[in-house]
Design goal:
Number of domains: 1
Number of helices: 1
InterPro entries: WD40/YVTN_repeat-like_dom_sf (IPR015943), Xyloglucanase_GH74 (IPR052025)
Helix content: under 10%
Radius of gyration: 19 Å
Number of strands: 28
CATH class: Mainly Beta
Strand content: 35-45%
Oligomer: single chain
Strand order of the largest sheet: 3-2-1-28
Protein name: Photosystem II stability/assembly factor-like uncharacterized protein
Shape: globular
Order of helices and strands: EEEEEEEEEEEHEEEEEEEEEEEEEEEEE
Distance between the termini: 6 Å
Length: about 350
């Protein structure tokens, strides 16, 4: 069995290949040299795996690239695959999210500015989720420091009419009717940057990432701008699970591929000090849905003065799951034993924005 690892950076895409042991890796790249790559997908549906990458050129704009041969060759859609319809008065700047839907051939994308898109042809063309774009809350979604973007899209694994999406400075939104309507799902998530007494609004939270496990889709985990949360009612309400962590700020949150009670985060300091507490690179794992946390650092460095971004941590789907993260110093670390021990897989890449892995 083979393992593939996609590493998207601000200056191109790197592809890593290894065997089931995941000790020795070979990387190729850069693919799409000097283009930003904020989103990747290893789509294992169909007869053979398809790789997708959301790229952005400063000259040609954004594009969704596709490969049917694990990156040996790439195809793009004339016009870029994702473009706003006439009259929208908006231009896609980046593709922040690519994720497989519940139905064959369906792929969702999240973009900057904040919009969600649906493809029915495997990512070759996309249609705007118009009701979300026209939502009355949208004029109040601020840009934030990282830009205004739908960075999380979570199609329900069994109900194709249900999709959960999250954007920075807007919060979590959900449709239960195939995109005809969308409602905010932020009850209990604190917006610490708002004045006292106004910190639990209907929307406007700075959500950094949301994840869930396909076997228990009603449970969601959320990393907020200051706070880590769990929902057991499909986002209807949220409770804090941050007790025991060294910091409540962070960007990624990742659920174990085979266990909905196991979740991973990478805490960093808030404010201007965007690096881990005491500058020690550590992944924190909970095996009881956030009731308690364990520090994982065997093989990880100290003197680590950079952050791990919202999509720059992931798992593969081996029986014994691998965990991966890439940092803003261009280093990618991996664990083949669910976080117990870590190895440096590749170093000195550009600023890492996204990692995605799969067993093939």
């Amino acid at each position: 069995m083979e393992t593939v690892l996609m590493v998207g950076t601000r200056k191109g895409l790197w592809l890593g290949r290894s065997d089931e042991e995941r000790r020795d890796w070979e990387f190729t790249g850069p693919h799409f040299d000097m283009e930003e790559v904020y989103s990747c997908l290893v789509d294992k549906r169909g007869d053979r795996p398809r790789l997708l990458a959301g790229t952005s050129s400063p000259w040609l704009g954004p594009q969704v690239r596709r490969s049917e041969d694990l990156g040996a060759t790439w195809t793009e859609t004339p016009g870029g695959a994702i473009r706003f319809p006439e009259g929208a008065d908006a231009t896609v700047e980046r593709v922040w999210q690519l994720v497989a839907g519940a139905e064959p051939g369906v792929v969702y994308a999240g973009t900057e500015p904040g919009a969600v898109w649906r493809s029915a042809d495997g990512g070759e063309t996309f249609a705007l989720e118009q009701a979300l774009w026209d939502h009355p809350h949208r004029p109040q979604w601020d840009a934030g420091f990282g830009g205004q973007a739908f960075h999380t899209v979570l199609p329900h694994p069994a109900d194709p009419r249900s999709v959960t999406a999250a954007l920075s400075t807007g919060g979590v939104y959900q449709t239960a009717d195939g995109g005809a309507s969308w409602e905010p799902r932020n009850q209990g998530v604190r917006a610490e940057f708002l004045p006292e007494g106004e910190q639990y609004p209907e929307f406007g939270q700075c959500v950094h990432k949301v994840t869930r496990h396909p076997s228990r889709p009603e449970r969601l985990y959320l990393q907020n701008h200051g706070g880590v949360y769990r929902s057991d009612d499909h986002g209807g309400s949220w409770q804090s699970i941050a007790d025991g962590l060294p910091a409540q700020f962070g960007f990624p949150i990742v659920v174990h591929p085979h266990d909905p009670d196991t979740v991973y985060v990478f805490p960093i300091n808030g404010g201007d000090r965007r690096y881990p507490p005491d500058a020690r690179a550590r992944v924190w794992r909970s095996r009881d849905a956030g009731e308690s946390w364990q520090e994982l650092g065997d093989g990880l460095p100290d003197g680590f003065w950079v952050a791990v971004m919202r999509d720059a941590m992931c798992t593969d789907d081996h029986a014994r799951a691998g965990i991966y993260f890439g940092a803003r110093n261009g280093a990618v670390w991996g664990s083949a034993d669910e976080g117990e021990t870590w190895r440096l897989l590749v170093a000195d890449l550009p600023d890492v924005m996204v990692v995605r892995a799969a067993a093939l």
